[in-house]
Amino acid sequence: MQDEIYLTKTQKPSSRLPPGWLDCPASGREIGRIIPSKVPLDETFNYCVLPGKRYSLRQVLHQQKVLGRKLGMVIDLTNTTRYYSSSEWRKEDIKHVKIPCKGRDAVPDNESCHLFVYEVSQFLVRQKDVKKYILVHCTHGFNRTGFMIIHFLMRTLPISVTQAIKIFADARPPGIYKPDYIDALYAFYHEEKPEMVVCPVTPEWKRSSDLDLNGDAMPDIDDDGGPAILLPVCVSEENVPLDSSHFIHG
């Protein structure tokens, strides 16, 4: 962990590992056809990542092939383009969708959530007869990723926020660990948060990476400095299918 902090502090911003990335679990179990994941890093990061810790497009495709899955789309929720080139996914005939969301001090906005639900829904409709999967990632694959997946579950299944949060947490333990994200979900769907719902403790790999060797807060490098800007996409309620039986049962 100390080596990771040193590397993060001394690397140039363009080649710096995201804090906590090395020890963060690569991906979670599938939720329907959605796979929550941390950001795959392109091969230019290999010089500072041991072979056993590498997680790039190559590793993603290999892991999914071993599991008998074929990816058809990747949704990138990071607010930067420095981790990999989206063209690498397209070369593999995998659609890449960029929905930039800030990672600190804010939850994804409504427009971003609507776009996520639209993209996933349209993909599942188009792939109804061909079982392809969707890889969804932010930096670590927990808060922004979980927030978006839960929005999709809430809009396509007859379940409560509590149930949706548990579905994600079971697939990607410990689930969303930012209290404001959990509170925002209950507020959006006008549900009262039960007393039994307790925000998970921040994982050790994330707690340790938030501070540098002097105990100071690490900078947010998952941000290119500007506001998160979405490409215009027409999203309406009729675009989002409510019958998601094909999503759950494949």
Break the fold down into its secondary structure elements and pairings.
Elements: H1 2-10, E1 34-37, H2 57-66, E2 71-76, H3 87-91, E3 95-98, H4 110-126, E4 133-137, H5 143-156, H6 161-171, H7 179-188, H8 204-209, H9 245-249
Parallel strand pairs: 1-4, 2-3, 2-4
Helix pairs in contact: 4-5, 5-6
In the CATH hierarchy, what is the class? Alpha Beta
Spatial sequence of strands, sheet with the most strands:
1-4-2-3
Structural class: alpha/beta
**DSSP E strands, number:** 4
Order of helices and strands: HEHEHEHEHHHHH
User: Beta-strand level of the residues, as a percent range?
Assistant: 5-15%
Largest sheet: 4 strands, parallel
- Could you list the spans in which at least 5 consecutive residues all have pLDDT below 50? 1-11, 211-217, 228-246
Say which CATH homologous superfamily is assigned: Protein tyrosine phosphatase superfamily
How big is the Rg?
A: 18 Å
Find the CATH topology: Protein-Tyrosine Phosphatase, Chain A
Describe this structure in words.
It is built from nine helices and four strands. By secondary structure, it is of the alpha/beta class. It has one domain (2-222): Protein tyrosine phosphatase superfamily (Protein-Tyrosine Phosphatase, Chain A, Alpha-Beta Complex), CATH 3.90.190. The protein has a four-stranded parallel beta sheet. Strand 2, helix 3 and strand 3 form a beta-alpha-beta unit. It is globular.
